[in-house]
Write a structure and sequence with these properties.
The complex is a heterodimer of chains A (434) and B (98). Chain A is an alpha/beta fold. Chain A folds into 3 domains: 201 residues, FAD/NAD(P)-binding domain; 106 residues, D-Amino Acid Oxidase, Chain A, domain 2 (2-Layer Sandwich), CATH 3.30.9.90; 64 residues. In chain A, the strands form 2 sheets. In chain A, strands 3, 4, 5, 6, 11, 12, 13, 14 and 15 form a 9-stranded mixed sheet that branches. In chain A, helix 1 runs parallel beside helix 3, helix 1 packs parallel to helix 9 and helix 14 packs antiparallel against helix 15. Chain A starts with a strand and ends with a helix. Chain B has one domain: Alpha-Beta Plaits, CATH 3.30.70. In chain B, a hairpin with a 5-residue loop joins strand 3 and strand 4. The longest helix of chain B has 6 residues. The chains are: A alpha/beta (434), B alpha+beta (98). Chains A and B meet through helix 3, strand 11, helix 6, helix 7 and strand 15 of A and helix 1, helix 4 and strand 6 of B.
Chain lengths: 434, 98
Protein backbone atom coordinates (compact mmCIF):
# COMPACT_ATOMS: atom_id res chain seq x y z
CA UNK A 1 0.00 0.00 0.00
CA UNK A 2 1.63 3.22 -1.15
CA UNK A 3 1.27 6.46 0.70
CA UNK A 4 -1.25 9.09 -0.35
CA UNK A 5 -1.07 12.83 0.28
CA UNK A 6 -3.45 15.70 -0.26
CA UNK A 7 -0.86 17.50 -2.39
CA UNK A 8 2.44 16.57 -4.02
CA UNK A 9 4.63 19.49 -5.04
CA UNK A 10 7.40 18.74 -7.52
CA UNK A 11 10.34 21.11 -7.11
CA UNK A 12 11.60 23.33 -4.30
CA UNK A 13 12.18 26.69 -5.98
CA UNK A 14 10.16 29.81 -5.14
CA UNK A 15 6.92 28.57 -6.71
CA UNK A 16 7.15 25.06 -5.23
CA UNK A 17 8.07 26.38 -1.80
CA UNK A 18 5.25 28.92 -1.87
CA UNK A 19 2.79 26.18 -2.83
CA UNK A 20 4.05 23.62 -0.30
CA UNK A 21 4.18 26.20 2.49
CA UNK A 22 0.68 27.56 1.83
CA UNK A 23 -0.89 24.11 1.57
CA UNK A 24 0.90 22.71 4.65
CA UNK A 25 0.12 25.80 6.71
CA UNK A 26 -3.58 25.23 5.98
CA UNK A 27 -3.32 21.71 7.35
CA UNK A 28 -3.14 19.71 4.12
CA UNK A 29 -0.77 16.75 3.99
CA UNK A 30 1.99 17.79 1.62
CA UNK A 31 4.87 15.89 0.05
CA UNK A 32 7.46 18.01 -1.72
CA UNK A 33 10.01 16.31 -3.95
CA UNK A 34 13.28 17.99 -4.97
CA UNK A 35 15.94 16.47 -7.23
CA UNK A 36 18.85 18.49 -5.84
CA UNK A 37 21.04 17.58 -2.90
CA UNK A 38 19.31 20.39 -1.00
CA UNK A 39 16.63 22.91 -2.01
CA UNK A 40 18.40 25.52 -4.11
CA UNK A 41 21.17 23.31 -5.45
CA UNK A 42 19.54 23.15 -8.89
CA UNK A 43 18.21 26.69 -8.96
CA UNK A 44 19.63 29.74 -10.69
CA UNK A 45 18.48 33.34 -10.60
CA UNK A 46 20.11 36.80 -10.88
CA UNK A 47 18.86 37.27 -8.18
CA UNK A 48 16.45 39.95 -7.00
CA UNK A 49 13.80 39.19 -4.41
CA UNK A 50 10.71 41.41 -4.57
CA UNK A 51 9.45 41.65 -1.02
CA UNK A 52 5.73 41.93 -1.68
CA UNK A 53 5.09 38.45 -3.07
CA UNK A 54 6.93 36.81 -0.15
CA UNK A 55 5.31 39.11 2.44
CA UNK A 56 1.94 37.71 1.45
CA UNK A 57 3.18 34.23 2.31
CA UNK A 58 5.61 34.84 5.19
CA UNK A 59 4.96 38.38 6.50
CA UNK A 60 7.94 38.39 8.89
CA UNK A 61 10.45 36.85 6.45
CA UNK A 62 12.89 39.70 7.11
CA UNK A 63 13.54 38.33 10.63
CA UNK A 64 15.65 35.43 9.45
CA UNK A 65 15.73 35.13 5.63
CA UNK A 66 19.25 35.35 4.17
CA UNK A 67 19.10 38.69 2.33
CA UNK A 68 22.16 40.32 0.78
CA UNK A 69 21.50 44.02 0.14
CA UNK A 70 18.35 46.11 -0.23
CA UNK A 71 18.34 48.01 -3.51
CA UNK A 72 18.49 51.79 -3.26
CA UNK A 73 19.68 52.51 -6.78
CA UNK A 74 18.65 51.17 -10.15
CA UNK A 75 20.77 51.90 -13.21
CA UNK A 76 19.81 51.27 -16.84
CA UNK A 77 22.64 51.26 -19.32
CA UNK A 78 22.61 51.21 -23.11
CA UNK A 79 26.03 50.16 -24.34
CA UNK A 80 28.10 50.20 -27.46
CA UNK A 81 31.64 48.82 -27.65
CA UNK A 82 33.39 51.66 -25.83
CA UNK A 83 30.71 53.53 -23.91
CA UNK A 84 27.33 53.57 -22.27
CA UNK A 85 24.46 56.01 -21.94
CA UNK A 86 22.48 55.48 -18.80
CA UNK A 87 19.90 56.60 -16.33
CA UNK A 88 20.31 56.12 -12.62
CA UNK A 89 17.48 56.27 -10.15
CA UNK A 90 18.48 56.49 -6.51
CA UNK A 91 16.14 57.45 -3.73
CA UNK A 92 16.36 57.58 0.02
CA UNK A 93 12.77 56.34 -0.02
CA UNK A 94 14.27 52.93 -0.81
CA UNK A 95 16.31 53.24 2.37
CA UNK A 96 13.34 53.22 4.69
CA UNK A 97 12.21 49.84 5.99
CA UNK A 98 10.38 47.75 5.08
CA UNK A 99 12.55 47.54 2.00
CA UNK A 100 11.05 46.90 -1.42
CA UNK A 101 13.62 44.57 -2.98
CA UNK A 102 16.79 42.74 -2.12
CA UNK A 103 19.61 40.91 -3.79
CA UNK A 104 19.70 37.28 -2.67
CA UNK A 105 21.82 34.20 -3.26
CA UNK A 106 19.40 31.52 -4.29
CA UNK A 107 21.15 28.47 -2.86
CA UNK A 108 20.95 30.11 0.58
CA UNK A 109 17.53 31.68 0.17
CA UNK A 110 15.85 28.51 -1.12
CA UNK A 111 17.32 26.50 1.75
CA UNK A 112 15.83 29.01 4.18
CA UNK A 113 12.44 28.99 2.43
CA UNK A 114 12.47 25.20 2.56
CA UNK A 115 13.10 25.25 6.32
CA UNK A 116 9.87 27.26 6.63
CA UNK A 117 8.07 24.70 4.47
CA UNK A 118 9.21 21.94 6.83
CA UNK A 119 8.18 23.97 9.88
CA UNK A 120 4.73 24.37 8.32
CA UNK A 121 4.45 20.58 8.32
CA UNK A 122 5.28 19.46 4.78
CA UNK A 123 7.40 16.38 4.17
CA UNK A 124 10.35 17.44 1.99
CA UNK A 125 12.38 14.79 0.19
CA UNK A 126 15.56 15.76 -1.65
CA UNK A 127 17.90 13.90 -4.04
CA UNK A 128 14.87 12.45 -5.76
CA UNK A 129 13.95 13.04 -9.40
CA UNK A 130 10.33 12.65 -10.42
CA UNK A 131 10.30 10.62 -13.63
CA UNK A 132 6.68 11.01 -14.65
CA UNK A 133 3.14 11.62 -13.54
CA UNK A 134 0.91 8.68 -12.65
CA UNK A 135 -2.42 8.72 -14.45
CA UNK A 136 -5.72 7.01 -13.82
CA UNK A 137 -7.39 7.60 -17.17
CA UNK A 138 -7.18 11.34 -17.65
CA UNK A 139 -6.74 12.08 -13.94
CA UNK A 140 -3.30 12.72 -12.44
CA UNK A 141 -3.14 10.61 -9.28
CA UNK A 142 0.51 10.81 -8.26
CA UNK A 143 4.13 10.67 -9.38
CA UNK A 144 6.81 8.08 -10.00
CA UNK A 145 10.24 8.87 -8.53
CA UNK A 146 13.65 7.40 -9.21
CA UNK A 147 13.70 5.68 -5.82
CA UNK A 148 12.86 2.08 -5.23
CA UNK A 149 9.11 1.69 -4.84
CA UNK A 150 8.95 5.30 -5.86
CA UNK A 151 5.24 5.61 -6.59
CA UNK A 152 3.42 8.14 -4.43
CA UNK A 153 -0.13 9.35 -4.72
CA UNK A 154 -2.02 12.57 -4.12
CA UNK A 155 -5.30 14.29 -4.89
CA UNK A 156 -3.44 17.12 -6.59
CA UNK A 157 0.05 17.36 -8.08
CA UNK A 158 1.50 20.87 -8.33
CA UNK A 159 4.17 21.05 -11.02
CA UNK A 160 6.88 23.46 -9.91
CA UNK A 161 9.56 21.65 -11.88
CA UNK A 162 11.10 24.66 -13.60
CA UNK A 163 11.45 26.14 -17.04
CA UNK A 164 11.96 22.84 -18.86
CA UNK A 165 8.51 21.78 -17.67
CA UNK A 166 9.55 18.17 -18.10
CA UNK A 167 6.60 16.48 -16.44
CA UNK A 168 3.84 18.39 -18.22
CA UNK A 169 5.60 17.81 -21.56
CA UNK A 170 5.94 14.08 -20.92
CA UNK A 171 2.29 13.90 -19.93
CA UNK A 172 1.33 15.67 -23.17
CA UNK A 173 -0.21 18.71 -21.44
CA UNK A 174 1.83 20.91 -23.74
CA UNK A 175 4.47 20.50 -26.43
CA UNK A 176 8.19 21.20 -26.56
CA UNK A 177 9.33 24.67 -25.56
CA UNK A 178 10.05 26.96 -28.50
CA UNK A 179 13.56 28.42 -28.76
CA UNK A 180 11.97 31.82 -29.47
CA UNK A 181 10.18 31.74 -26.12
CA UNK A 182 13.16 31.24 -23.81
CA UNK A 183 16.28 33.24 -23.09
CA UNK A 184 19.54 31.49 -22.28
CA UNK A 185 21.41 33.37 -19.57
CA UNK A 186 24.85 32.75 -18.10
CA UNK A 187 26.37 34.41 -15.08
CA UNK A 188 29.25 34.40 -12.68
CA UNK A 189 29.54 35.25 -9.04
CA UNK A 190 32.66 37.28 -8.23
CA UNK A 191 33.75 37.70 -4.64
CA UNK A 192 35.48 40.81 -3.28
CA UNK A 193 35.67 42.60 0.07
CA UNK A 194 32.53 44.36 1.28
CA UNK A 195 34.41 47.68 1.49
CA UNK A 196 35.42 47.41 -2.16
CA UNK A 197 31.81 47.00 -3.25
CA UNK A 198 30.67 49.88 -1.07
CA UNK A 199 33.38 52.19 -2.42
CA UNK A 200 32.82 51.24 -6.07
CA UNK A 201 29.05 51.57 -5.96
CA UNK A 202 28.75 54.50 -3.56
CA UNK A 203 26.76 52.59 -0.94
CA UNK A 204 27.12 51.76 2.73
CA UNK A 205 25.98 49.05 5.15
CA UNK A 206 23.46 46.85 3.39
CA UNK A 207 22.55 49.19 0.55
CA UNK A 208 22.81 47.81 -2.94
CA UNK A 209 22.80 48.75 -6.61
CA UNK A 210 21.50 46.94 -9.66
CA UNK A 211 22.50 47.67 -13.24
CA UNK A 212 20.38 46.41 -16.12
CA UNK A 213 22.05 46.66 -19.51
CA UNK A 214 21.41 46.16 -23.18
CA UNK A 215 23.13 46.94 -26.44
CA UNK A 216 26.46 45.76 -27.78
CA UNK A 217 27.20 43.37 -24.91
CA UNK A 218 24.77 40.91 -26.48
CA UNK A 219 26.59 40.83 -29.80
CA UNK A 220 23.66 42.36 -31.67
CA UNK A 221 21.24 39.74 -30.41
CA UNK A 222 18.07 40.51 -28.51
CA UNK A 223 19.15 40.28 -24.92
CA UNK A 224 20.20 41.97 -21.75
CA UNK A 225 22.94 41.98 -19.18
CA UNK A 226 22.87 42.63 -15.49
CA UNK A 227 25.10 43.39 -12.54
CA UNK A 228 23.82 42.96 -8.99
CA UNK A 229 25.66 43.81 -5.78
CA UNK A 230 25.54 41.23 -3.00
CA UNK A 231 27.14 41.64 0.43
CA UNK A 232 30.63 40.55 -0.53
CA UNK A 233 30.13 39.49 -4.12
CA UNK A 234 28.89 40.73 -7.47
CA UNK A 235 26.68 38.75 -9.80
CA UNK A 236 27.24 39.50 -13.45
CA UNK A 237 25.32 37.91 -16.26
CA UNK A 238 24.14 38.15 -19.83
CA UNK A 239 21.31 36.49 -21.70
CA UNK A 240 19.80 36.31 -25.18
CA UNK A 241 16.90 34.54 -26.79
CA UNK A 242 17.84 30.92 -27.42
CA UNK A 243 16.60 31.13 -31.02
CA UNK A 244 18.97 34.08 -31.61
CA UNK A 245 21.92 32.21 -30.14
CA UNK A 246 21.15 29.36 -32.51
CA UNK A 247 20.76 31.57 -35.61
CA UNK A 248 23.67 33.91 -34.87
CA UNK A 249 26.03 33.88 -37.89
CA UNK A 250 28.94 34.69 -35.53
CA UNK A 251 28.27 31.40 -33.73
CA UNK A 252 29.08 33.09 -30.42
CA UNK A 253 28.99 30.99 -27.30
CA UNK A 254 27.28 32.37 -24.21
CA UNK A 255 30.53 32.24 -22.22
CA UNK A 256 32.33 34.23 -24.93
CA UNK A 257 29.65 36.90 -24.68
CA UNK A 258 30.09 36.93 -20.89
CA UNK A 259 33.86 37.35 -21.19
CA UNK A 260 33.45 40.21 -23.66
CA UNK A 261 31.01 41.85 -21.30
CA UNK A 262 33.48 41.52 -18.41
CA UNK A 263 36.12 43.20 -20.56
CA UNK A 264 33.89 46.18 -21.50
CA UNK A 265 35.73 49.37 -20.44
CA UNK A 266 32.73 50.54 -18.39
CA UNK A 267 32.27 47.20 -16.63
CA UNK A 268 35.80 45.89 -16.09
CA UNK A 269 36.74 48.41 -13.35
CA UNK A 270 33.65 47.51 -11.30
CA UNK A 271 34.54 43.84 -11.15
CA UNK A 272 38.35 44.13 -11.08
CA UNK A 273 39.98 41.72 -8.64
CA UNK A 274 36.80 39.71 -8.11
CA UNK A 275 37.34 36.04 -7.40
CA UNK A 276 35.06 33.92 -9.58
CA UNK A 277 33.56 31.08 -7.55
CA UNK A 278 30.74 29.79 -9.72
CA UNK A 279 29.53 29.84 -13.32
CA UNK A 280 25.84 29.15 -13.98
CA UNK A 281 23.54 28.85 -16.96
CA UNK A 282 19.77 28.79 -17.01
CA UNK A 283 16.81 29.26 -19.31
CA UNK A 284 14.29 32.03 -18.61
CA UNK A 285 10.79 31.68 -20.05
CA UNK A 286 10.30 35.01 -21.82
CA UNK A 287 7.52 34.16 -24.25
CA UNK A 288 5.05 36.05 -22.08
CA UNK A 289 1.27 35.96 -22.30
CA UNK A 290 0.99 34.02 -25.56
CA UNK A 291 3.44 31.34 -24.43
CA UNK A 292 1.67 30.43 -21.17
CA UNK A 293 0.37 26.87 -21.65
CA UNK A 294 -2.73 25.33 -20.16
CA UNK A 295 -1.96 25.55 -16.45
CA UNK A 296 -4.46 23.20 -14.83
CA UNK A 297 -6.34 20.01 -15.53
CA UNK A 298 -7.61 16.91 -13.80
CA UNK A 299 -5.56 16.67 -10.64
CA UNK A 300 -2.74 19.01 -11.72
CA UNK A 301 -1.66 22.63 -11.76
CA UNK A 302 1.48 24.29 -13.16
CA UNK A 303 3.23 27.10 -11.30
CA UNK A 304 6.33 29.29 -11.70
CA UNK A 305 8.77 29.01 -14.60
CA UNK A 306 7.19 25.70 -15.60
CA UNK A 307 4.11 27.72 -16.65
CA UNK A 308 6.16 30.49 -18.27
CA UNK A 309 5.22 33.02 -15.59
CA UNK A 310 7.92 35.65 -16.16
CA UNK A 311 7.51 39.34 -16.90
CA UNK A 312 10.59 39.81 -19.06
CA UNK A 313 10.06 43.53 -19.57
CA UNK A 314 10.33 44.25 -15.86
CA UNK A 315 12.78 41.45 -15.08
CA UNK A 316 10.29 39.89 -12.68
CA UNK A 317 10.02 36.14 -12.20
CA UNK A 318 10.43 34.93 -8.64
CA UNK A 319 7.53 37.11 -7.47
CA UNK A 320 5.29 35.65 -10.15
CA UNK A 321 6.56 32.20 -9.15
CA UNK A 322 5.69 32.68 -5.49
CA UNK A 323 2.31 34.18 -6.32
CA UNK A 324 1.34 31.39 -8.71
CA UNK A 325 2.51 28.81 -6.15
CA UNK A 326 0.41 30.40 -3.45
CA UNK A 327 -2.67 30.68 -5.68
CA UNK A 328 -2.39 27.03 -6.78
CA UNK A 329 -2.16 25.92 -3.15
CA UNK A 330 -5.15 28.07 -2.21
CA UNK A 331 -7.09 26.42 -5.05
CA UNK A 332 -6.17 22.97 -3.73
CA UNK A 333 -7.19 24.01 -0.21
CA UNK A 334 -10.57 25.26 -1.49
CA UNK A 335 -11.13 22.11 -3.55
CA UNK A 336 -10.39 19.92 -0.55
CA UNK A 337 -12.81 21.94 1.59
CA UNK A 338 -15.53 21.73 -1.06
CA UNK A 339 -15.19 17.96 -1.16
CA UNK A 340 -16.28 17.61 -4.78
CA UNK A 341 -13.11 16.02 -6.10
CA UNK A 342 -10.12 17.37 -7.97
CA UNK A 343 -11.11 17.37 -11.61
CA UNK A 344 -10.26 20.34 -13.84
CA UNK A 345 -13.61 21.88 -12.97
CA UNK A 346 -12.70 21.99 -9.29
CA UNK A 347 -9.28 23.48 -10.04
CA UNK A 348 -10.48 26.12 -12.52
CA UNK A 349 -10.40 28.67 -9.70
CA UNK A 350 -6.62 28.71 -10.12
CA UNK A 351 -6.91 30.25 -13.59
CA UNK A 352 -9.47 32.83 -12.47
CA UNK A 353 -7.25 33.75 -9.51
CA UNK A 354 -4.29 34.16 -11.88
CA UNK A 355 -6.35 36.35 -14.21
CA UNK A 356 -7.44 38.52 -11.28
CA UNK A 357 -3.87 38.94 -10.00
CA UNK A 358 -1.03 41.11 -11.26
CA UNK A 359 0.47 37.97 -12.82
CA UNK A 360 -1.81 37.68 -15.85
CA UNK A 361 -2.66 41.38 -15.89
CA UNK A 362 1.01 42.28 -16.37
CA UNK A 363 1.65 39.47 -18.85
CA UNK A 364 -1.38 40.62 -20.82
CA UNK A 365 -0.25 44.25 -20.80
CA UNK A 366 3.06 43.30 -22.43
CA UNK A 367 1.65 40.51 -24.59
CA UNK A 368 3.10 41.92 -27.84
CA UNK A 369 6.46 42.93 -26.42
CA UNK A 370 8.38 39.69 -27.12
CA UNK A 371 7.46 39.73 -30.82
CA UNK A 372 8.06 43.48 -31.23
CA UNK A 373 11.61 43.12 -29.97
CA UNK A 374 12.12 39.85 -31.73
CA UNK A 375 11.17 41.20 -35.15
CA UNK A 376 13.01 44.48 -34.73
CA UNK A 377 16.62 43.80 -33.80
CA UNK A 378 17.48 47.49 -34.37
CA UNK A 379 16.41 48.11 -30.78
CA UNK A 380 19.37 46.03 -29.67
CA UNK A 381 21.88 46.96 -32.34
CA UNK A 382 21.34 50.22 -34.23
CA UNK A 383 19.83 52.35 -31.48
CA UNK A 384 22.37 51.65 -28.72
CA UNK A 385 25.15 52.69 -31.10
CA UNK A 386 23.29 55.77 -32.33
CA UNK A 387 22.47 56.96 -28.84
CA UNK A 388 26.04 56.49 -27.66
CA UNK A 389 27.40 58.25 -30.75
CA UNK A 390 24.97 61.13 -30.22
CA UNK A 391 26.06 61.58 -26.61
CA UNK A 392 29.72 61.43 -27.59
CA UNK A 393 29.25 63.98 -30.37
CA UNK A 394 27.33 66.39 -28.18
CA UNK A 395 29.60 66.13 -25.14
CA UNK A 396 32.96 66.21 -26.87
CA UNK A 397 34.28 69.79 -26.83
CA UNK A 398 36.29 70.18 -30.01
CA UNK A 399 35.59 73.61 -31.45
CA UNK A 400 32.68 72.45 -33.62
CA UNK A 401 29.50 74.45 -32.98
CA UNK A 402 26.50 72.72 -31.42
CA UNK A 403 24.18 73.34 -34.38
CA UNK A 404 26.54 71.44 -36.68
CA UNK A 405 26.76 68.67 -34.12
CA UNK A 406 22.95 68.41 -33.98
CA UNK A 407 22.84 68.10 -37.76
CA UNK A 408 25.49 65.38 -37.64
CA UNK A 409 23.52 63.44 -35.03
CA UNK A 410 20.28 63.79 -36.97
CA UNK A 411 21.90 62.60 -40.18
CA UNK A 412 23.49 59.61 -38.42
CA UNK A 413 20.00 58.58 -37.30
CA UNK A 414 18.63 59.15 -40.82
CA UNK A 415 21.43 57.10 -42.35
CA UNK A 416 20.70 54.12 -40.10
CA UNK A 417 16.91 54.30 -40.16
CA UNK A 418 14.53 56.09 -42.50
CA UNK A 419 12.19 58.68 -41.00
CA UNK A 420 9.35 56.24 -41.47
CA UNK A 421 11.45 53.58 -39.74
CA UNK A 422 12.17 55.85 -36.80
CA UNK A 423 8.52 56.83 -36.45
CA UNK A 424 7.43 53.23 -36.90
CA UNK A 425 9.81 52.04 -34.18
CA UNK A 426 8.53 54.67 -31.79
CA UNK A 427 4.96 53.62 -32.56
CA UNK A 428 5.72 49.92 -32.11
CA UNK A 429 7.29 50.59 -28.72
CA UNK A 430 4.44 52.81 -27.62
CA UNK A 431 1.86 50.25 -28.66
CA UNK A 432 3.64 47.38 -26.93
CA UNK A 433 4.23 49.32 -23.69
CA UNK A 434 0.90 51.10 -23.30
CA UNK B 1 35.27 35.40 -33.32
CA UNK B 2 38.71 36.18 -32.05
CA UNK B 3 38.00 35.87 -28.33
CA UNK B 4 38.99 32.42 -27.15
CA UNK B 5 37.40 31.55 -23.84
CA UNK B 6 38.34 28.52 -21.85
CA UNK B 7 35.00 27.41 -20.42
CA UNK B 8 36.67 24.50 -18.61
CA UNK B 9 38.26 27.02 -16.26
CA UNK B 10 34.82 28.35 -15.41
CA UNK B 11 33.33 24.89 -14.92
CA UNK B 12 36.26 23.97 -12.68
CA UNK B 13 34.83 26.35 -10.05
CA UNK B 14 31.53 24.44 -9.98
CA UNK B 15 30.56 21.52 -7.82
CA UNK B 16 29.29 18.36 -9.50
CA UNK B 17 28.32 14.88 -8.44
CA UNK B 18 28.84 12.98 -11.67
CA UNK B 19 26.71 9.86 -12.16
CA UNK B 20 29.53 7.82 -13.67
CA UNK B 21 28.52 5.67 -16.59
CA UNK B 22 24.96 7.02 -16.62
CA UNK B 23 24.90 10.19 -18.76
CA UNK B 24 21.52 11.93 -18.49
CA UNK B 25 21.69 13.27 -22.06
CA UNK B 26 22.34 11.17 -25.13
CA UNK B 27 22.64 11.79 -28.85
CA UNK B 28 20.03 9.44 -30.29
CA UNK B 29 21.61 8.81 -33.68
CA UNK B 30 25.17 10.18 -34.06
CA UNK B 31 24.93 9.71 -37.83
CA UNK B 32 22.20 12.35 -38.03
CA UNK B 33 24.53 14.96 -36.50
CA UNK B 34 27.25 14.07 -38.94
CA UNK B 35 25.16 13.80 -42.10
CA UNK B 36 21.94 15.76 -41.67
CA UNK B 37 22.77 18.66 -39.37
CA UNK B 38 24.46 21.58 -41.09
CA UNK B 39 24.56 24.05 -38.21
CA UNK B 40 25.60 21.75 -35.35
CA UNK B 41 24.52 24.69 -33.21
CA UNK B 42 24.76 22.68 -29.99
CA UNK B 43 28.55 22.91 -30.36
CA UNK B 44 28.51 26.66 -29.74
CA UNK B 45 25.20 27.29 -27.94
CA UNK B 46 25.78 24.84 -25.05
CA UNK B 47 26.97 27.09 -22.19
CA UNK B 48 29.14 24.29 -20.80
CA UNK B 49 30.63 23.23 -24.16
CA UNK B 50 29.48 19.65 -23.63
CA UNK B 51 29.13 19.19 -27.39
CA UNK B 52 32.26 19.14 -29.53
CA UNK B 53 32.48 19.34 -33.31
CA UNK B 54 35.09 16.78 -34.27
CA UNK B 55 37.34 17.14 -37.29
CA UNK B 56 35.63 14.25 -39.07
CA UNK B 57 32.20 15.95 -39.01
CA UNK B 58 30.90 14.07 -35.99
CA UNK B 59 29.49 15.66 -32.83
CA UNK B 60 30.52 14.16 -29.51
CA UNK B 61 28.86 14.72 -26.16
CA UNK B 62 30.34 14.56 -22.65
CA UNK B 63 27.76 15.55 -20.02
CA UNK B 64 30.05 15.84 -16.97
CA UNK B 65 30.05 19.67 -17.04
CA UNK B 66 26.35 20.00 -17.92
CA UNK B 67 24.54 22.90 -16.23
CA UNK B 68 21.14 21.26 -16.91
CA UNK B 69 19.69 24.26 -18.76
CA UNK B 70 17.92 22.31 -21.53
CA UNK B 71 19.11 24.44 -24.45
CA UNK B 72 20.54 21.55 -26.49
CA UNK B 73 17.23 19.69 -26.51
CA UNK B 74 15.20 22.77 -27.48
CA UNK B 75 17.45 23.90 -30.34
CA UNK B 76 17.52 20.39 -31.82
CA UNK B 77 13.84 20.46 -32.74
CA UNK B 78 14.34 19.80 -36.48
CA UNK B 79 16.06 16.46 -35.91
CA UNK B 80 14.99 15.84 -32.29
CA UNK B 81 18.23 14.01 -31.83
CA UNK B 82 18.81 14.83 -28.17
CA UNK B 83 17.45 12.46 -25.55
CA UNK B 84 17.27 14.65 -22.48
CA UNK B 85 16.45 13.74 -18.90
CA UNK B 86 17.40 15.28 -15.59
CA UNK B 87 20.17 13.36 -13.78
CA UNK B 88 19.18 10.87 -11.11
CA UNK B 89 18.27 12.50 -7.81
CA UNK B 90 21.25 14.14 -6.09
CA UNK B 91 23.50 13.92 -9.17
CA UNK B 92 24.70 16.48 -11.69
CA UNK B 93 25.41 20.13 -11.03
CA UNK B 94 25.12 21.22 -7.40
CA UNK B 95 25.04 25.00 -7.26
CA UNK B 96 26.78 26.52 -4.25
CA UNK B 97 25.28 29.94 -4.88
CA UNK B 98 22.92 29.60 -7.86
Amino acid sequence: MSEKFDVIVVGAGPSGNAAAYTAAKAGLSVLQIERGEYPGSKNVQGAILYANALEQIIPDFRDDAPLERHIIEQRMWVLDDESFVGTHFRSDDYNKPPYNRYTIIRAQFDKWFSSKVKEAGALVICETTVECLLMDGDQVVGVRCDRQGGEVFADVVILADGVNSTLARKAGFHGEIQAGNVALAVKEILFMPQETIEARFNVKDEEGVVIEMFGKITDGLMGTGFLYTNKDSITLGVGCMLSDFKANPNRSSPYTMLEKMKAHPSIAPMIAGGEMKEYCAHLIPEGGFHAVPKVFGNGWMIVGDSGGFVNAVHREGSNLAMTTGRLAAETAIAAKAAGKGFKAKQLAGYKSALDESFVMKDLHKYRDMPSVFHDNSQFFTTYPELVNRAARTMLTVDGIDKKTKEKEIFSSFRKSRSLAGLAGDAFKLWRAFR
Amino acid sequence: MSTVVNVEEKLFQNRYKVDHGRPHIKIRQPDLCRNECKSQSCTYVCPAACYKAEGNGAVTLITDGCLECGSCRIICTELSNVEWEYPRGGHGILFKFG
